[in-house]
Amino acid sequence: MQEKVYTGIMASPGIVIGRAYLLDRRKVVVAGQRIEEISVKDEVARFKRAIALSKGQLEDLKKRFTKGLGKSHLYILDTHIMLLEDKMLVDGTVKRVKESHLNAEGALKETIEAISLKFDTIEDEYLRERKHDVEQVGERVLRNLVGHKQESLADIKGEAVIIAHDLAPSDTLMMRKDKILGFATDAGSRTSHTAILARSLGIPAAVGLENITSAVKTGDVVILDGIHGVVIVDPDEETFLDYLKKQRRYKYFEQELENIKDLPAETLDGKLILLEGNIELPEEVASVADHGGSGIGLYRTEFLFMNRLTLPTEEEHYAAYRQVAERAAPQEVVVRTFDLGGDKIAVSTGFEKESNPALGLRAIRFSLKQQDIFRVQLRGILRASAHGNIKILYPMISGLHELYATKTILAEVKAELRAEGRAFNEQMQVGVMIEIPSAALIADLLAAEVDFFSVGTNDLIQYTLAIDRLNEHVAYMYEPLDPAVLRLLQMVSDAARKANIPLAMCGEMAGDPLYAAILIGMGFTVLSMNVASIPWVKKIIRSVRMQDALELASLVLAQPTAERSRQAAVQFMDERFPELAAEL
Description:
The protein is α/β, with parallel strands linked by helices. It folds into 4 domains: 4-25 and 151-236, Glucose Oxidase, domain 1 (3-Layer(bba) Sandwich); 37-146, Enzyme I, Chain A, domain 2 (Orthogonal Bundle), CATH 1.10.274; 300-428, Alpha-Beta Barrel (TIM Barrel), CATH 3.20.20; 432-584, Alpha-Beta Barrel (TIM Barrel). The protein is built from 24 helices and 16 strands. The protein has helices at 40-69, 75-84, 87-100, 104-120, 125-128, 130-146, 169-173, 193-201, 212-215, 237-260, 285-290, 314-328, 363-369, 371-384, 400-420, 437-441, 443-447, 457-465, 483-499, 513-522, 534-541, 546-557, 562-576, 578-581; strands spanning 4-7, 9-12, 15-22, 160-164, 180-185, 205-207, 221-225, 230-233, 274-279, 296-299, 332-336, 389-394, 430-434, 452-455, 503-505, 526-529. The strands form 2 sheets. It has an 8-stranded mixed beta sheet with strand order 1-8-7-3-4-5-6-2. It has an 8-stranded parallel barrel with strand order 9-10-11-12-13-14-15-16, surrounded by 4 helices. Helix 1 (40-69) packs across helix 6 (130-146). The protein is globular and about 70 Å long.
């Protein structure tokens, strides 16, 4: 048979060769049906029993895997359990049953679709992907409603590469590394909780392959290249031998990463770079330390606002931030204030959907417009600062007028807390995200007013190049090494250096090993990333001298096109890290 190659998204690095096992993870097909008024009460009760059964299943999974995995990975199950208690999901479904006289299956399906739509326009890829969690939780409840039992990964005999339409985090937790070599799915993204968990557990994976389930049969020989998001079905002899060599090389390199995990990210000539983690939930703090991170460079706070009918209270803010600060102490925790538009938070606030939310009332603009909400969050952050090394980060700052406004509000909130006798860190540092070109262009003015910069490259690149990287027609233009992007980064770096303030990066560019030497050569002293990327970036930093990094940054900045810049970066990697360059 002729080999077939399928390309998707890299979810978790690694190379495995084995026999495929086609796992049935098709969605449950349900039909919405009208019910009589007399049946409404019974239908609501049936739905609530399915919710309780789903919750019990996840609680049992937690108990089953706590000993083997430790608590650092089980927070994802906690996320799904919280969704089963979510008022928007539960009350929304019950309301549809009562008011629309829909059966439980139909009402739940409509509720999930309504919640998913709210996520679709979120700019932040990590947050947008949380709709996947809602859909997976909904799928579990639907299966319990219709009595459809699902094949368990724990029942699979012998070694296998799992091929499925989609997998839930609970599936990934059930994978025994001595049996499950890796997995590939039609659906999914690099920021799904399933992919994040796979990286944390070291299970190679490729997702978003679209039609891999229709191309593979149980028993087929497959090569899963999680580094590039590729699956090769029925490889020929030449490909097979080539990947055997790659697999051996990668395993050797992986062992090297494990050996340096807990060492400092220090260049050969003694320059220390802080490698930190981006997190969303307090439970993720342990995973940062497990991967050799030195703090929390980006703590997203949006989870407190989403999928609920009421706004978070000051006590909820305070409890969440304090928990992270205490778990991370004495290392720093950079708390980013709310970074969404009003249409994504509590429905009771009545904010309308905007036609172009990426350029609309979101992030700091929304916070300044809705100061009551902003002040509650600031009070929570300030109070939590008494329990650890918390710093505050304002997103989407476009100019000094916004920064001045936030300073005024923060000063007023501090005065309120002092008057109430509440403790907080009077010297808590304040920084701004540089993610809008206008902010980069006036970085010298902003630097005089803040304690640190944190560059958000995801938005900075999109706004600078006027492209939507999720739009398949222009996604190819999303290029971190574009000369325009690099010049803005250098401009921000120069301003930070002259003002003598720390310069961090928390966008995806920070976690790509190809860019590590360039970024430290440009003056970045803190890189914050997905935790699985920390050992890879640490390997690069510990293997270069600052002089090499400075020369590479100058060389890349001098190139007239993104293609030429990338060629220079790849050549640098080829010469110094041939074992890693082959895998990039």
